[in-house]
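Q: Okay, next protein. This is Acidic mammalian chitinase from Daphnia magna. I've checked the sequence twice, so it should be correct. Can you predict the 3D structure?
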Amino acid sequence: MTITLISKMLSIAIVLCVLFVIYGFMSKLSLTFLGFTSSTKLTSLSGPPVHQWNFENATLFLPGITNRLYRQEVYSRAARHHSRHLHGPKKYHVTRRQQQINHSFRRVCYYTVPSEEWPFLQPGQIDVSLCTHIIIGFAKISGGLLAPVGEKDEVIYKEVIELKKLAPELKILLSVGGASNDLGFHSVIETLEDREEFAVNSAKYLIKMGFDGIDVDWEFPAWYRPFEERFMFQMLLQELYYVYKNPLYNLTISVAVAASKSIIDRSYRVAQMAKYVDFVSLMGYDFHSFKWYLPLTGHNSPLYPRSDEWNMFSTVNLNWTSFYWVQLGMPREKIVIGLPTYGQTYQLYNPNFHGLYAPAIGAGTVGIGGQISYPVVCQFLANGGIREFDAESRVPFAYHKRSWISYDDEQSLEEKAKWIRSNYFGGVMVFDLNCDDYNNICGNNTFPLIKSILRGLTT
Ligand SMILES: *[C@@H]1O[C@H](CO)[C@@H](O)[C@H](O)[C@H]1NC(C)=O
Ligand SMILES: *[C@@H]1O[C@H](CO)[C@@H](O)[C@H](O)[C@H]1NC(C)=O
Ligand SMILES: *[C@@H]1O[C@H](CO)[C@@H](O)[C@H](O)[C@H]1NC(C)=O
Ligand SMILES: *[C@@H]1O[C@H](CO)[C@@H](O)[C@H](O)[C@H]1NC(C)=O
Ligand SMILES: *[C@@H]1O[C@H](CO)[C@@H](O)[C@H](O)[C@H]1NC(C)=O
């Protein structure tokens, strides 16, 4: 009797030992896989946290391979966080600020380089009083280097940078990636040398052109790709931070990030990322658009969930996703809430069903991939479109015959800006300047949407 008990206990102990050894081996293996060599001491390094690093000793920060120690420090932290992450991410409490800080909200405006497929706004037509940051989209990574997409893009970059003469405080960033130019990221994340080289080369390019920083718009790390990219992405941001925050460069780092829970959970290590970015632009749009697997109408950018939405559907709105980012550890003042100036179109299955979650058979035929700019929305409304306002989600939609559009107007954007202000987020991002009514076609002043956001932020 006792003998069988003892042998049972022994075999359990042996199994536990074997599991323990396998676990240790796997952790070590994954660290090696992530680029940590065995010479990187993971426990004995100490020093100030990266965000408290003293930048006064500029010579220590010459980019390149001169500061192995500093980098080891950075990576040892990453390694420790990595092992913690294996036990699940830490949840941060969403606390309401007791005291309103005197916060100057960032007003980040995307500007899309003129092309035939998108509203053709010239740099000279931009109203510089609207934005604190202009982000030019989009550049790509080619051969490990930051590079323009079109031949004439650099001329446009120069023209936008010229705007700083009118507004010296304006910051101009270059966005790399975007939904269609982010294949290059794979070539610069794999090894430490690749990441380091990209950080140095891109900083030099930005300085040469006269930019104030970068906007990393990879849609999305580890998404339909190996899970390891999640860690490599964070290490790329670390490397950018290490080079860009050299006082000789002093470049801004922003990241355009996803709003959907499944992508956030897979792509980002939020609390770790927070140390290496000046701000993230939370892309608070495309929550619904026509999908063959979900052929129903829906809001492009709802502020709140509707009472008839549950489970996943109750997470696809600005309020939910913004607080999710806070909960995962991104400081509120670094969260810049992205709002659209464009709308999403649908073709209804039956014109008599024109509410929310009505059956649709496709995206609209106007616009680009079913997306339309605000002047097109105005024309739609002027030609028989009927506008309704969703009292729960706080956004309008409009329909006429088989056409159905979800969009934002002065009313919804002003409300969203007020919500940003009263919740102390870091500011507002707009995608994009091009889709606002910059030619005053709607007849309510130029850039009416962005101006309504300014009203919401200040009154
Ligand atoms: C700069 O580096 C030197 C030598 O490492 C050190 O003695 C000094 O305290 C550093 N200065 C600052 C401001 O950190
Ligand atoms: C907020 O900032 C403005 C402008 O810088 C300043 O005039 C005002 O006194 C500040 N208010 C508080 C409460 O600090
Ligand atoms: C870097 O730029 C920021 C503004 O973007 C400024 O506040 C800061 O003082 C600068 N730091 C250095 C070391 O030049
Ligand atoms: C917005 O999100 C906060 C934090 O999760 C929550 O407390 C609040 O009830 C939400 N508001 C609405 C209207 O859903
Ligand atoms: C035009 O702008 C004013 C504020 O400048 C706003 O009150 C009004 O609602 C806008 N009109 C339309 C049709 O959006």
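A: Here is a summary of the prediction. Residues 27-67, 83-89 have pLDDT under 50 and may be disordered. The longest helix spans residues 2-33.
Q: Noted. On to the next one.
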